[in-house]
Amino acid sequence: MAKRTLAVNSPTPTEVWAYLQETGRQISEMGLKADERLAESRKQMDERLEESHRKTDERLAESRKQMDERLEEFHRQMEERLAESRRKIDERLAESHRKMEEQFAKTDKQIEEFSKGLDETRKIVAETSKGLDETRKIVAETSKGLDETRKIVAETSRKVEEMSRKVEEVSKNLGGIGNMLGDIAEGLLTTDLFEKFHALGYDFEESIANYEACEKGTKRLLAEIDMLMLNGTMALAIEAKTQMTVRDVNQHLKHMALLHSKPNRLLGDRKLYGAMAGIKMTKKARTYAIQKGFFVIEPSGDTVKIEAPAGKPAVW
Predict the structure, then answer these.
(1) Residue 289: which domain range?
(2) Does the pTM exceed 0.70?
(3) CA torsion 275→89→75→277, rounded to 10°?
């Protein structure tokens, strides 16, 4: 009974071979399906990478566009600021010229009146001398001449006092002209400085006129600078004079030493350069300033010219 069951359940070699062939076929199909899935996965990954690259390129293009727009806006604002600075300088210079012309006209008129008064005084003195001679003659003859002489002397004293007052007014006006020439020196010698220094490789962004430098943490005044030009890494201290001398150069050297040894919050760690500006200057003063590492600024027609030091300018 057991042998018959074993005979029925045992596979024949043909069945075994068929089973193995079916198993091989199934394995081949599984391999093909695995290859198809792998190919599909690669295709999807390539598509995703391509889409990612496309989006990245679009973002980069948008970033470049925004950066270009910001740069263009920054340049436009800088041009507007420069134009406004030039306009204000031109207005100040025109106003200084106008005030100077008015002051000169007023002074010329006062000098003319003063000269006229002097002529009248001389005439009065001459008449007084003549009157004194006549008075002596009259005194010898009658006491009535004494009263007339007192009147003449009183009139002469009054006119002399009036002339003294006019002389004092003229002296005061001449002093005002001296101060105005100083203002003109500062105004004239700062025209077009941004462009001139840009041509020399120094791009300053702003300027401060009549800058008073105080010691950091205190209110003690270190130096008064006629004009301070700045950018993020450097500063230029300019001293302006109507007629520049060697003494003026030495004084500015002291200012530079003080600003270097005791920097304040505005100057910070900026490189500090110096410049001397003058409407007129001696050859000795110009040479001395160049030797000390200063830029030298002089009028040239309607603008200015800048002479740089030989080699590198001094840095404080």
Answers:
(1) 190-307
(2) no
(3) -10
